[in-house]
Queue: 2 jobs
Job 1
Amino acid sequence: MLTLINTNRMVPPIAPIGLEYVAEACGRAGIEVSILDLALCEEPAKAIREFFSRRNPSLIGLSFRNVDDCFWPSAEWFVPGLAQLVRDIRSLSDAPIVLGGVGFSVFARQVVEFTVADFGVRGDGEAATVSLYRQIENGRDFHSVPGLIWRQGGQTCVNEPAWPADFSLPVRRNMVDNRTYFARGGQCGFETKRGCNRLCLYCADPLSKGSIPRSRKPAEIADEIESLL
Ligand code: SF4
């Protein structure tokens, strides 16, 4: 089983779109997926304890959307909290932990080293997570997993990210409680493209999704929106 955990608890809440795409892609590949959405939990620590008392996953993925709150008066930095979460989960499960997400991908290697997580995936996570899960199950050839940050002989290894020009995303969006996000005044998004060739100084997208624009097929996007209605 793959467990995916949304770690972003900023408000207004932003539905974890990347986590949901990864969940659907893994489900389509025949991997059993369970999701713990900490943004919708009143007591996250209690929710984590209860969750792992009932499940024994083979791999745990933590989505990390924001490294900080982008607000100079508070200047809150979320990486120490992520490191604490990794330690808390390790006390409850022996499964390896992989980090991913847009914020994570900006400083992928540094965040893996700071948090001492087992793995990280920079860039598109759908095929990479399926590949990592398969390699953990049998093989352990981590060179072949796109965008993977991993360790070998005490060294941190960094694979080239997967930013395929021709990409397709799942269109079914019912693994995350998107309606509750909407009801709480948050956002429920969908991606029409990934990557950007502009150089806006403040923007993380080219670092996380590549510097070449990649468009999805319009019919696929329409099907996805329909599944959200
Ligand atoms: S995605 Fe980012 S880099 Fe591209 S135009 Fe928008 S703000 Fe600028």
Job 2
Amino acid sequence: MGSLAKDNIDVDFLVVGAGPAGASLAAFMAQNGLKGMVIARASGTADTPRAHVFNPFALETLRDIGLEKDAIGHATHGEMFQSFRWARSMVGEEYGKVQAWGAHPRSMGELARASPCKYLDLPQSHLEPIIVRYASSKGFQFRFSTQLVGIEEIPNSGDSLCTVRDLISQHEYRIRAKYVFGADGSRSKVAQILGLKYLAEPRPGVACNILFKADIGHLIPEERYAGLHIIVQPDNFIGMASLLRLIRPWNEWILVCNFSEEDNRFSNVTPQSPEIVDLIHKAIGDDTVEVEVTRLDPWTVNESVAETYSVKGRNIFILGDAAHRHPPAHANGSNTCVQDAYNLAVSSHKLPRS
Ligand SMILES: Cc1cc2nc3c(=O)[nH]c(=O)nc-3n(C[C@H](O)[C@H](O)[C@H](O)COP(=O)(O)OP(=O)(O)OC[C@H]3O[C@@H](n4cnc5c(N)ncnc54)[C@H](O)[C@@H]3O)c2cc1C
């Protein structure tokens, strides 16, 4: 490293991570007039849709900073989304359909009483840029391709000296921060540095998101609209638990395949493998459709929570997946990330700073 003094940066608030948790925290702090910096190891915002169901309570927090309309503009909502459908394939026999996410007459009234907002299908790849744009326009600085390497405590100050690496130049420098927030996801370096412990359920399984393009709007009349198409083909690998999910009407989709950890069927395939296109054709129920597979994203379904979100005497806190990891059912992942950020930002407003 060159001269430390020359390379030092001083900030009140350093947020590690620019996913739903970190970007939202910066946005809500910025709304409260606070300034700081966000670093993220990734080179940009989420490049795949990942989490998508955005609940009314998370949307309320965006409403608070004037981003509700933006979010709705990038989302699918209403009839196109508010139901689950069980079927042999998209065009095959339909076994059942239920209204969901506030659409059932019984829950409509309850939801209207509980929140002015509604459920949206807002893929993470569309959510994150909205929030990052807001936070950076309000004075929070974002440094992507920048990895947290270590944190030292500065004695008698409560401040932290964070070593970070620019992943483009490989140059390391230091950031002195009064408060550090670890929004650095499920393998949190911040939590590791603090030595935080997690309570964990046995892993519920693994999943692979198959992102693909296929123009199939002509196969989807209104009666087939649904937020999740649960494909039931017990005689095929896609079996009981594969989900077909619309990303952008009507040509961008995800097939989420859930399977057990012992199953290595996805270990040797690439987006070009014929068996992947075959799976998609089976899920659609039409093998004449032109399909372009753009990504395979294996991910682990986790259920765990940190025993504590900070350590006594240190001004360092964790949030989002760094603090709690949820199985995707009920969409608690990115919704709780945004809500954690909102609660923390409200508290941060009261913190002493320079
Ligand atoms: C492939 C995939 C598919 C998914 N699909 C679904 C789904 O279908 N439904 C669902 O509900 N959830 C899904 N999830 C989970 C959902 O994406 C997470 O719950 C959510 O992203 C958590 O947000 P977060 O901000 O806490 O962390 P993340 O989104 O993981 O963001 C972490 C941030 O920290 C940064 N970072 C990490 N380490 C460092 C470091 N050392 N230094 C600096 N920066 C660092 C990263 O670059 C990133 O910016 C999926 C996740 C993945 C990976």
